[in-house]
Automatic annotation (TrEMBL):
Residues 1039-1201 form the TATA-binding protein interacting (TIP20) domain. It comes from the Eukaryota. It comes from Sparus aurata (Gilthead sea bream). It holds the Pfam family TIP120. InterPro entries: ARM-like, ARM-type_fold, CAND1/CAND2, HEAT_type_2, TATA-bd_TIP120. Keywords: Repeat, Ubl conjugation pathway. Residues 305-335 are annotated as: Disordered. The gene is cand2. PANTHER family: TIP120. One of its GO terms (biological process) is SCF complex assembly. Signal peptide: none annotated. Belongs to the CAND family. HEAT repeats lie at residues 49-87. This is TATA-binding protein interacting (TIP20) domain-containing protein.
Length: 1231
């Protein structure tokens, strides 16, 4: 400590030197010392340092003064409050003296001091001084400095200044009437910083004051100030302005009729703020504002567009220079009308982006108006017109992507399900291209960039929309690529659009224009700027595809163009001193050339392949080279790769050892392509480097790598069987481990089944059919203790593999089946072996190779009667699988058994479900009536499990003949009992699948009738209706989007706690509360959670939040769900969440601060802890919302979390898991 004091004393002494250099160096050294976290000053040093720095603020040397100012910020955190107050007092008094230097020091010094560590006393001191400074009407410069600092304080320390908000508002409002424009503008800025954190009462006071002043009809200059202030507080205050809109809108509308361009501009800025911040409250006024925007977007009293329009109609190829001259003729430096047009167009942009529900009406009214304004003479305004139209396209794209799930009943009727807005847009495409055609050849770079951005958006929105108009677009593209005055950014934009155009349209559309398109692209490939080269290579790659699309023969002749593209690409491919992106794209582009046009490159081909081999050996380019060789290997031109294969295989084998997953997967795909297409060129010895690496890759730690590795081995078994023989002994143990893994399913299992079939057919393995079978089934014949570790999934996996081997070797099937039956019947067999044998019989039978074997049938029926649950379940599954293979033999028997054996009914229904799920519709059709009748005989079963099985069978059976069976399900809603209705509604859930199906259009027409069961008198019917609705919202939201308005009120009703469903049950001496409505509420909240992801645009978010708020106080399960919803809402709809923040924080705070009662069981403790963690995750999501720190209640809660060790610990652990920063939370320190 003494060393620090001594060092500081030396510096302070040097600061008094008459030599300015000494003073400068000493002050600089002090600044460096103060920036160290470790420095601690004693009280005397604090006082001396503060005094000296304040003195140096008046130093004669400017550089010393500036350094002294820079020392103030780090000093604040190193000294105690009295010294900070001294600094503030001195700076304030200096500023009030009116000296310019003092004002500057105060501004910079105070701004630097504004850290969250400032105490309320210091804040009070600064604020009172600033309020006094604002009142100094005689010195405008002091006022301006005071207002600047006040804005900064309100922006950074809003929570700490809550007590001063009222006095600040009282001081700021008079400044709005200042005669100086600068004072008025800075006062508006300060008010803008005040409104997000002030109380609702103060906000109402401010809004009321503005309304009162505007009602008095003040001079135009004052009206402008008040309207500008309204726009600012709306932008900053957000939702708060919503409740005042009914009074504000008519007032602002009235002022748009005043002949003052700046006032009109501010009016439209206010409208834009209202629309963006309060879209719901603005709904009644949308028509009025739209009408005004459409009126004033053409407001250009000093210019006549009529001649211009006629010229455009006569010819669209007028010289651009002439147009620009004519524009200049009419330009007027005093003409402010462009501001009115620009603000009205921005307002339209806001309307389009916030009101997707009005998209169709915008296409009727706004779209033609925007198209007509593409001729706008003012460049900046024209850019905004393009931006607004691009927003319209983006909204259309979002809407059409939501509707992509629904399919039609036939391919011949694609337009039925096309988004209406897309249909309307398609009609406008010719007009869009016509008006942009001319703009694309203008000298204005900004206009052309706007055109390309708009056209890119259009190409993304409607694929193929520009196919008929490509001849009209090509001149504009070529002009932007070849014009010498074109900037690099412009060229890149043109190339980006061209690339999108090539990707989204068929090659045939471009082939006639290749002679015009290719030269400018080739020139760009040779450009010195790497970004242009990189984009041009992407375009060149697509042009190669255009020259000869994969699989196309005849037609377009690419020969005249090959050399031109090849030479420039080769030049880039050979270069080593170029950007990484260019290197990679040159490799890919050349790869496409070889793949599509390799037969035109005979002389040059070997040289190119040699370069690819070099790039394969380079760590930086190896992944791109691997993918390129994969592409060439699969080429229909059958490119001869024999010159590089031995070395390439060696290098590729080494990549399989690398700890880089993308490289591993890419290499395996490449090897797969090489073995599949070039097996004849591969010598067995060349594959050895690859074979030695494969066993290590077959492991359950990475299922995808395992799948691709097994697929490669399957290819080898077929194409190079002798090679695989060498590693079968080392690779098979890994394959068997995978088969027995609980993680095995889907594509990996299919790959292993294919591999085992290929292996046994290749007859090269030292393991034949019987050995493979033994290796698969051995683990299931061990003792009962060992069998317990076998996972259920592995039974099904092994059964599939056994059936595959049996299918590949039909001669072995009878012996295998006999052995399996013996295993089932043997009383001494372990349970695991009997279960596996039954499943194997089922899978073998699924192929139809058992026919209608009565012996096998008898064995399975006997097993269904077993006392062992696992054996019974396996037998039920086996019976269903066998029925799939021999439907006519087994199905009548199965239906008879279901009717006559009530004790076995549940298991036999499982068998029937397997049949319905796996059999094609054509096979099932003759049996539909008998199955349907049987199922409805059991749809009112008291057992819910049986009813659910019946419902699943009914739902899946409906697919067989949806047009007839769906109406019959609908009829049952009226005829059946509550149990029957619940079964029917559950059946509908199983008709809603996550992929397109022919039933979709029929479902869309009638799902509303099934959703009426949300109003059913029976609580269980309502619950299953909610489950069905949730399934539709998740798997196929387009089915229910149009019904949300009628369904949501009933959904929300089910989220409410009903006291009539809560009862008390006596359990011995204790009373236990039972809530019969809990399951229905959980189902309702689950629906709400799903709707957030699938149908957000159809929700009234504020109404949605009302029910989320109630859920935050409900049962444990529901609270867990609502915490998730709140976190999701914070990300999706931050503005709405901010609007309800104060009401949402209270239940969150209650959960986070709850402590488990002493003596609670461990389970209750863990449950409560998980609840608190979930609540804290929601809090963390809220803290990530921009501007949340301006909420006093959130600031208080954040401070409470930070100061409470228990809550801080939970919060930190949440941050650690989710990897989020403490950004917003740290800014809460101010409170």
């Amino acid at each position: 400590m003494s060393n620090v004091s001594y060092h500081i004393s030396n510096l302070l002494e040097k600061m008094t030197s008459t030599d300015k250099d000494f003073r400068f160096m000493a002050t600089n050294d002090l600044m460096l010392e103060l920036q160290k976290d470790s420095i601690k000053l004693d009280e005397d040093s604090e006082r001396k340092v503060v005094t000296m720095l304040l003195k140096l603020l008046e130093d004669k040397n400017g550089e010393v003064q500036n350094l002294a100012v820079k020392c103030l910020a780090p000093l604040v955190s190193k000294v105690k409050e009295p010294q900070v107050e001294t600094m503030v007092d001195t700076l304030c008094s200096n500023m009030m003296s009116g000296q310019r230097a003092a004002e500057r020091h105060f501004q910079h010094g105070t701004e630097d001091e504004l850290t969250p560590q400032l105490t309320p006393n210091v804040c009070k001191k600064i604020t009172s001084q600033l309020i006094g400074a604002m009142g100094k009407q005689e010195d405008v410069s002091v006022q301006l400095e005071a207002l600047d600092i006040l804005s900064d304080m309100l922006g950074r320390l809003s929570g700490a200044l809550v007590g001063f908000h009222s006095s600040l508002l009282s001081s700021l409002l008079p400044q709005l009437t200042s005669s100086r424009m600068a004072v008025r503008k800075r006062s508006i800025l300060a008010l803008g910083h005040l409104v997000p954190c002030c109380s609702p009462a103060l906000f109402s006071q401010l809004t009321g004051h503005l309304l009162t002043e505007l009602a008095k009809g003040p001079p135009t200059s004052m009206t402008r100030t008040y309207i500008q202030c309204l726009a600012t507080i709306s932008r900053q205050g957000g939702h708060r302005v919503g409740e005042h809109l009914e009074k504000l809108i008519p007032m602002v509308v009235k002022f748009t009729s005043v002949e003052d361009d700046e006032l009109r501009e501010y009016c439209f800025q206010a409208f834009e703020a209202f629309i963006r911040r309060c879209p719901k409250e603005m709904s009644p006024h949308v028509a009025t504002v739209t009408k005004l925007c459409l009126k004033f977007m053409t407001f250009d009293p000093n210019y006549n567009y009529d001649d211009d329009e006629e010229e455009q109609e006569d010819s669209m190829d007028i010289e651009d220079g002439l147009d620009e001259e004519s524009d200049d003729e009419y330009s007027d430096d005093d003409d402010m009308s462009w501001k009115v047009r620009r603000s009205s167009i921005k307002c339209l942009d806001a309307l389009i982006s916030t009101r997707r529900d009005l998209l169709l009406s915008f296409y009727s009214s706004v779209c033609p108006a925007l198209l007509a304004r593409f001729k706008e003479r003012e460049e900046n305004v024209r850019a905004d017109v393009f931006a607004a139209f691009s927003t319209l396209l983006k909204q259309t794209r979002v809407g059409s992507s939501h509707h992509g799930h629904v399919v039609t009943t036939s391919d011949s009727e694609p337009s039925k399900e096309e988004e209406p807005a897309v249909t309307m847009l398609k009609k406008q495409v010719p007009v869009i291209v016509k008006v942009l055609h001319r703009q694309l050849k203008e000298k204005s770079i900004k206009s052309r960039q706007g055109c390309f951005c708009l056209l890119t958006e259009l190409a993304h929105t409607v694929l193929g929309a520009l196919e008929q108009h490509i001849p009209a677009l090509i001149p504009g593209i070529v002009f932007s690529l070849t014009d010498k005055s074109t900037s690099s950014t412009m060229r890149i934009d043109a190339l980006t659009f061209f690339h999108v155009l090539l990707l989204s349209h068929p090659p045939q559309a471009f082939q006639p224009h290749m002679q015009v398109l290719l030269p400018p692209v080739v020139a760009c490939v040779e450009d010195s700027f790497y970004k242009i080269t990189s984009e041009a290579l992407l375009v060149a790659q697509q042009l190669v595809r255009v020259m000869r699309p994969q699989g196309q023969t005849g037609g377009f002749d690419p020969k005249p163009f090959v050399k031109e593209v090849f030479s420039v690409t080769l030049k880039r491919l050979k270069a080593t001193d170029i950007d990484q992106e260019v290197k990679e794209r040159a490799i890919t582009c050349m790869g496409h050339m070889v793949c599509h046009l390799g037969d035109h490159l005979r002389a040059e081909l070997q040289g190119v392949l040699a370069i690819f081999l070099e790039r394969l050996k380079n760590e930086i380019t190896r992944l791109t080279a691997v993918r390129t060789i994969t592409l060439i290997s699969a080429s229909s031109l059958k490119i001869d790769l024999s010159s590089i294969l031995p070395e390439a295989l060696s290098v590729l084998g080494s990549f399989l050892r690398k700890n880089q997953r993308a490289l591993k997967l890419g290499t395996l795909a490449c090897l797969n392509a090489l073995v599949t297409h070039h097996a004849a060129s591969i010598k067995p010895a060349a594959l050895e480097p690859v074979l030695s690496e494969l066993p290590a890759l077959v492991d359950e730690s990475d299922m995808h790598v395992s799948q691709v590795s097994v697929t490669l081995m399957t290819c080898m078994a077929k194409a190079c069987p002798s090679s695989l023989a060498k590693i079968s002994s080392s690779v098979l143990p890994g394959v068997f481990r995978l088969v027995h893994s609980p993680l095995l399913q889907g594509g990996v299992l299919t790959a292993i089944v294919d591999f085992l079939q290929a292996l046994v057919l290749s007859k090269t393995s030292n393991l034949g059919y019987s050995q493979l079978l033994k290796s698969l089934t051995d683990p299931f014949h061990s003792s009962q203790a060992d069998a317990a570790v076998i996972h259920r999934q592995s039974y099904h996996s092994v059964a599939r593999c056994v059936a595959a081997l049996s299918s590949a070797c039909p001669k072995e099937t009878p012996g295998t089946v006999a052995g399996l039956m013996k295993e089932v019947k043997s009383p001494g067999s372990p349970e695991s072996a009997r279960v596996l044998a039954l499943l194997c019989l089922g899978e073998v039978g699924r192929t139809g190779s058992l026919g209608g074997s009565k012996e096998v049938q008898g064995v399975i029926l006997e097993a269904i009667s077993s006392t062992n649950e696992e054996v019974k379940t396996a037998a039920s599954c086996a019976l269903g699988s066998m029925a799939v293979g021999s439907l006519n033999d087994y199905l009548p028997f199965l239906l008879k058994e279901i009717s006559s054996q009530p004790r076995r009914q549940y298991l036999l229904l499982h068998s029937l479900k397997e049949v319905i799920s796996a059999c094609p519709a054509s096979s099932l059709s003759p049996h539909v009536e008998s199955i349907w009748t049987l199922l409805f005989q059991n749809c009112e079963c008291q057992e819910e499990g049986t009813r659910n099985l019946v419902a699943e069978c009914l739902g899946k059976l409906t697919f067989v003949n949806a047009s007839q069976l769906l109406p019959r399900l609908k009829q049952q809603l009226k005829a059946g009992s509550p149990l029957a209705r619940s079964t029917v509604v559950t059946a509908i859930k199983f008709t809603i699948v996550d992929h397109p199906a022919p039933i979709d259009s029929l479902l869309k027409d009638c799902i509303g009738d099934f959703l009426k069961t949300l109003q059913d008198g029976d609580i269980n019917v309502r619950r299953v209706a909610l489950v069905m609705f949730n399934s539709a919202a998740h798997n196929k939201p387009s089915l229910i989007r149009g019904l949300l308005a009628t369904v949501l009120p009933h959904l929300y009703k089910e989220t409410q706690i009903r006291k009539d469903l809560i009862r008390e049950v006596e359990m011995g001496p204790f009373k236990h509360t039972v809530d019969d409505g809990l399951d229905v509420r959980k189902a309702a909240f689950e629906c709400m959670y799903t709707l957030l992801d699938s149908c957000l645009e159809g929700l009234d978010v504020l109404q949605f939040l009302d029910h989320v708020e109630e859920g935050l106080k409900d049962h444990y399960d529901i609270r867990m769900l609502t915490f998730l919803m709140l976190a999701r809402l914070a990300s999706l709809c931050p503005a709405a969440v901010l609007q309800r923040l104060d009401r949402l924080i209270e239940p969150l705070k209650a959960t986070c601060t709850t402590k488990v009662k002493a003596g609670s069981v461990k389970q209750e403790f863990e449950k409560q802890e998980e609840l608190r963690r979930s609540a804290m995750r929601a809090v963390a999501a809220l803290l990530a919302v921009p501007e949340v720190e301006r909420s006093p209640s959130m600031a208080d809660f954040a401070n409470q979390i930070r100061t409470n060790a228990d809550m801080a610990s939970i919060y930190q652990s949440i941050q650690g898991v989710e990897g989020e920063g403490l950004g917003p939370a740290e800014s809460m320190d101010m409170s």
